[in-house]
C-alpha cells in the first residue's frame, strides 16, 4: 500500500476499526475513508454499491460486525447471523466488482469447534460442532472466510481473513447487557467499588441514571452490589485476550507485507483453512482474570461465581505459529493491558 492509497475501514468507530485507523495514521497513511452507520447502512446492498462506485477504495478492511458476549449472542441469534451475513456479503462482493486490490476480513476464534483440540490451529475449522451459545455468529464468520477464499480461487482476488482472539482496548463496549467478558467485568467491579466506598454520585454518573435507588436496582440485575460481584459460570473456562492495538498492528502488517498466496501451500490440491489466527497464544482462567481485575481496580468485596449460569467453551487458546511464521508477535501483556483499559475507561466516564 502507498501512503496516499485510498483505504476504506468499515466499522472505523468500533473497538477494532478505530484501532486500525489509529495504526494506519501513525504509519503515515493519509487517505483513510470511513462511514458511520447513520451515513451508510452496510446491510443495504444498494447503498453499499453506491458508496463503492463513488469512493472507489483501493484497499478495504472489513472490521464492521454485530458483536457481543454470551448473553447477547444467545438472545439475539437471528440478528447476529442476519446482520453479519449481509454486511460481509455486501462489502466483499462490491470489493470484487470495483477491483479492490486487497481486502482484510476480520472474524473471531469462535469459529472453532466447541471441543476443538488445544491450542486451536487453523486446520481445526469445521471438524466438529460449534459452541451453541454463539453458533449463529460463528457460522456468519465462517461464511465470510469461505467467501474470501472462494472469490480468491474463482476470481483471482487478494482477500485475507484473520481470526482475532478475544479483544479489549480503547473504544470497547462497556454496556453490561451486550459487552464481552473483560469490559463487562471491569465496569461491574468498578461500580461495585464505588458503591463499597459510598461514592454514590460517581455511580449515578457512570450509569447515567437519575438517582442512587435506580443505580442500585440496575446493578442488582447484573449481580452487583457494594459487597459482591457475580461472575457468570464456574470461573474455570480459560480465555485468551489480545490488546486491540496489537491486533491492529498485526492487521496492518499483513496488509503491507503478505498476500493470499502466502496463506497456503501451493502443492495443496484442496485449498482451505487459509485464515490466520491473531492472538498471544497465552490463556488465563476467568477466575484468575476476575481476581486480576479486582486487584487492579482495588475492590474490597467478594467475587461470586454463579455455576447455574453457562460457562461457554471451557478451553479456547489459539495456536499463533502461522502468524509468527509470517513475521508478527504481540507486544502488550494482559495485566498491562487491563491497567491501560481501566485508565481509559475512567478518563472516558
UniProtKB/TrEMBL annotation:
Enzyme class: oxidoreductase
Keywords per UniProt: Isomerase, NADP, Oxidoreductase
Sequence ranges assigned to domain NAD-dependent epimerase/dehydratase in this UniProt record: 7-261
InterPro entries the UniProt entry points to: Epimerase_deHydtase, GDP_fucose/colitose_synth, NAD(P)-bd_dom_sf
EC number from the UniProt entry: 1.1.1.271
GO MF, one example: GDP-L-fucose synthase activity
Family: Belongs to the NAD(P)-dependent epimerase/dehydratase family. Fucose synthase subfamily.
PANTHER family xrefs: GDP-L-FUCOSE SYNTHASE
Name of the protein in question: GDP-L-fucose synthetase
Record organism: hydrothermal vent metagenome
